[in-house]
Every structure is written in structure tokens, then in C-alpha cells.
Amino acid sequence: MAEMIDVARSSVQTWQSDQMGHMNVQFYLEQATHGLAALAVHLGLGPRFIAAENVKLLAREHHVRFLREQRPGAPITVRAGVLTVQDYGLRAYFEMYNTVSEEVAATFAVDVELLDVDSRETKPIPARAKAAAKALIIELPAHGAPRGLEIYPPREAPTLSEAEAMKLVFTWQGEVLADQCDEQGFLLPRHFMGYVSDAIPNLLGKTRGDDRSQNSKVGGAALEYRFHYHAYPKAGDVLTLRSGLKMVGPKTYIWGHWLFDLETGKSVATAEAVAIALDLETRKAIPIPEEMRLRLEAMVAPGLGV
Fold first, then answer.
1. How many CA atoms lie within 13 A of 88 on its CB side?
2. 30-42: per-residue pLDDT in tens?
3. Domains recognised in the chain with CATH numbers
């Protein structure tokens, strides 16, 4: 087995922090995206190859585990390896760690495909790139394996009408902006996660009656996420998000999120996440009160999932 290689290095900025005082989930995904670009260089699929062949490695699915909070000023590095290699894609592994302490902050198992940069049509990976990827094969570390989520084959892409029939909560809606997109005008992975993150206060307000702006002592944190990308929206598209509860436990929730193109009603992405309520003073998970847990269990939406 190979050793992982460093593929990105940066630090946590104040403007990347959210109401909880820690690095927002969308910026973790941004670091993994930077890491994928550098991994592509190591595979001979870097910017010159992209320009010549008009194809690029892009994520089709992310499984993310958040292991440690990252606060402003923290120095971070991302390292990578390859888990499996196929003709049209590979499964890559990234982990973000503190550059000084070397404690792992987050892990990312990413299903990657080689896609035409304009049409997003899948293309075969060149033999030399597959050989380079096989030289980077590693085993999935235990701390990168799924814990609170089951990784099953993605369901058939849902529709907006299906979400409305299930009475999922309307949590976010907006236009895809040009500065949220890549050079070809397609939405960057960070912003899929960003839209869901922006939606959470509405979700908590509609399901639990919470208003985070009125409570400085209790917040929340994601422990694990899975995102499956059904389509690649472009600048100017209007997207709408529907969310609901998949499961409620003693301390954790599993939320489901379905993102749609408002005009067509077609699915753009499906996601689910394990989350906790967080005491912002002790930085520890808070048990869900029994009365609230029972009320939330009544809101669980059968059939919700990635």
C-alpha cells in the first residue's frame, strides 16, 4: 500500500466561520476540492491535460466525516490516496489534518469521474492515469469509514413534486450566482454544501421552533455528511431545497436534503447528514429532551434518503 500525499495546505480564516465559531462545513468541502485538483496533477490529469482534452476529474459523490472542530487561525493540510480505480472513475480518499498537531479534522471518501468540462459527459480515464492512480492505492482508515450513515446505492432521483407530496420542509431557495461557479459556469461543490448549511436555521425553526439568533449558548454541528450529485446546475439556475428528518436518536439526528431545479422540478443533489445539538460553552453534544425527541419522531419522513 502507498503512503498518502499532501495535496492542499491553507489555514482557517475568520470569515470561514459560522455562528458556532468554527469553520463552516462548506469550506471543508472546498479544501477537498482543492485537493482533488492537485491529485489530478499527480495522475497526469492537470490543467494542461484539461485544456488539451476538455475533460476534468469531478466529484459525483462525497462522504464526509467531521472529527474535530477547526477554529480561525488553525493551520490545515489535506493529504490524499486512492481507494479503487475503474475505467470511468475512481474512489479517492482525502483527510484534512492540523499541520502542527497532525490531528485529523475531517475525512472525505469521494467518487470521482472524468467528465467533459462542457457537456459533463463521462469519459474513460487514460491508461497512464489509471496506472498512476493504482500506485497511490491505500486502505480506507477506520476513522474515515461510515459511522452514523449507511452507504447504500443511490435511490432513483426524486422530483420536486415527490418532495412536496411527502410534505418535506421548504428550507432554502435562490439563484446560482456566477461567482459560485467554475470557469464553465457550473456550480462548485462547496456551494451545494453551503446551500444546505444556510438552510439549517429554517429547518430547525420549522421542526423544533428554534431561532439561533436568540440563543447564544446552544448551536449545532454536523458529524457526517453524504452528498450525491445528480446534475451540475449553472449560473442563473434557480434552485430550491426540501428537507426532513430521516431518524432521531438520543443525541443525534439524521436530516435528509433534496435540492431541485425550481423550473424543471428535477433533482440536482440529494444528501443526508448526522447532526447534534452543541453546547457552545462546553463544545459538547447535548442530549435531545425526551419530549422533543418524541415530537420529532412523529416528523420522520419514510423514503427520505440519498
1. 7
2. 999 999 999 999 9
3. 1-145 (3.10.129.10), 148-306 (3.10.129.10)
